[in-house]
Specification:
This protein is α/β, with parallel strands linked by helices and about 210 residues long. The protein has 2 domains: about 5-135, Rossmann fold, CATH 3.40.50; about 140-205, Winged helix-like DNA-binding domain superfamily/Winged helix DNA-binding domain (Arc Repressor Mutant, subunit A, Orthogonal Bundle), CATH 1.10.10.10. Helix content is about 55%, strand content about 10%. It has a 5-stranded parallel sheet with strand order 2-1-3-4-5, with helices on both faces. Helix 7 (about 150-160) crosses helix 10. The longest helix has 21 residues, at about 115-135. It starts with 9 loop residues before the first strand and ends with a helix.
Length: about 210
């Protein structure tokens, strides 16, 4: 699954090494992402807009506030923006600590570009879905599998803006049956609005 419009997400890079900020930033910008960089955690805390979907690419060892310290602060503030840690030190203890606190992944420098971009894509998709629908990608997919084939068909057509009567005509069902399928789909997907349904179906279909 891929994000439909990468320009709607933001990749935050926090690293005191200007070469890393420039090279990683260029790599991500070339892929179509919006990118913003900081050379320290304090400025990031002051400037960031956490409501924008995306992820944080974070150096684990920096002067002043370290990456691990920033992660702990973000956890305390209930931030759900996923973090990908970067390190040139191969510090296994730090890796374990970061993952326990909810880091999305932990990568060593120099980066393998393809592996890094794949992880960023998964990370961003997860955050995009969480912020748009209110649940992570894994939960969304789990809930979608609960639907019957008819409920999936009904949900997809409803997400296109079709009324129950039009869906009934398309599927050869009664409008009441369509309404029942729609209600069951909403319940199983744990959503309560057409906007959420549209975002969910879009995430599932891409």
């Amino acid at each position: 699954m891929t994000i439909v419009d990468k320009s709607k997400v933001l990749i935050r890079i926090i690293d005191d090494d200007p070469v890393i900020r420039k090279s990683v930033g260029f790599m991500l910008s070339y892929e179509g992402y919006n990118v913003k960089t900081w050379d320290n955690a304090q400025d990031f805390i002051r400037d960031d807009a956490p409501s924008i979907p995306g992820c944080i690419v974070l150096d684990i060892k920096m002067p002043g506030m370290t990456g691990l310290e920033l992660q702990k602060l973000l956890v305390q503030r209930h931030s759900e923006t996923p973090i990908i840690f970067l390190t040139a030190h191969g510090d296994i203890e730090s890796a374990v600590e970061s993952m326990k606190d909810g880091a999305f992944d932990f990568l060593q420098k120099p980066l393998n570009p393809q592996k890094f971009l794949t992880i960023v894509e998964r990370c961003v998709q997860d955050d995009f879905v969480r912020k748009k629908i209110g649940m992570p990608q894994e939960e969304l997919e789990h809930n979608w599998k609960k639907l019957s084939d008819r409920e999936k068909e009904t949900a997809k057509l409803a997400a296109q803006g079709m009324s129950s009567s039009l869906i009934a005509e398309r599927l050869g069902l009664s409008p009441r049956t369509v309404e029942n399928h729609r209600a069951c789909a909403y319940k199983k997907l744990a959503i309560n609005s057409l906007e959420h349904l549209k975002n969910l179906v879009n995430a599932i279909s891409n």
